[in-house]
Amino acid sequence: MKKIQINILLLAALLTGLSACLKKDAMNIDPDSGTKNVVEFANTGDNLASAASKYPRFYADLGTVSTGQVSAIKLNLSYSGIETASQDITVNLALDTAALSLYNVTDGTGYTVPPTSVYKFPSSVIIKKGTQLSQVEIIVTIASDFDFNKSYAVPLKISSVSTGMVSNNFGSAIYSFGGRNKYDGIYLVKGNVTHPNAAYTGPFVDDEVAFNTTGAATIAMKAQPFFNNGTLATFDVHPVFTVNADNSVTVSGLPDGGMAPSISDPTYKNRYDPATKTFFISYSYNAAVPRIIYDTCVYVKPR
């Protein structure tokens, strides 16, 4: 009987300790501080940083965006511990480019701070008396100098607090984000190839080709599909489509003296039909022995 009681007490102690650990993880309590009045960045979604990283990183998918559009990224500041704030706490924020540089080295990433026209954040936040959390926003604007080819992140630090102490482990955080233009997505691509290899020549269809955003009105095909004796394959060719104001399309990124429209059909109108979300494209490459391609690319779904 005595042994059973001891085992029950041990089990209760284990469960209590596990519960405390889970609470610490949820609140991001700094395990090294040894105090109850720690101010820190609380989680905003999943922490995507590697285990080796000193700083947490969060990611916001802005979805389909266009120039001038404004989005918001949630930012949580926490007074961590078992007690609520005994008074209003002013939390001052600042950019932390040193944290981003270290994060890029540690995690092998290439994040860069966006132009100042793209983002803004509050310089100070108030955690109200009797509470533990304050939520504010980083405002992201798809300005004219927003570069879809770059990986953006806003690195922030708690520069000072009116009371309490700043967390050693969660006093800085990386807020990364990205978006896509309205042409980005998965397309059904069908068309025809003329090639010096007869096995590659003829009609083809591929019902799932990814087109990735590379600019405000530009997308790049993952790879040009074709049939090799009836079997779906791809060329190492990745045409880039830029939709102009009149819905004509400029094709770039072609290898070996590429031309668009194709060398065999110079009057063809490369174009985009917004009503059906369809690209009609003609191009060629390899000037010496041209490979001539016609693509009809029909939007299917988001990528």
Automatic annotation (TrEMBL):
Gene3D superfamilies from the UniProt entry: hypothetical protein (bacova_03559)
Presence of the UniProt keyword Signal in the record: yes
Matches recorded under PROSITE patterns: PROKAR_LIPOPROTEIN (PS51257)
Keyword terms: Signal
Endpoints of the signal sequence: 1-20
Domain of life: Bacteria
Cross-referenced InterPro entries: BT_3044-like_C, BT_3987-like_N
Protein name: DUF1735 domain-containing protein
Domain spans labelled BT-3987-like N-terminal: 63-163
Domain BT-3044-like C-terminal: 173-287
Species whose genome carries this gene: Niastella koreensis
Keyword Lipid biosynthesis: no
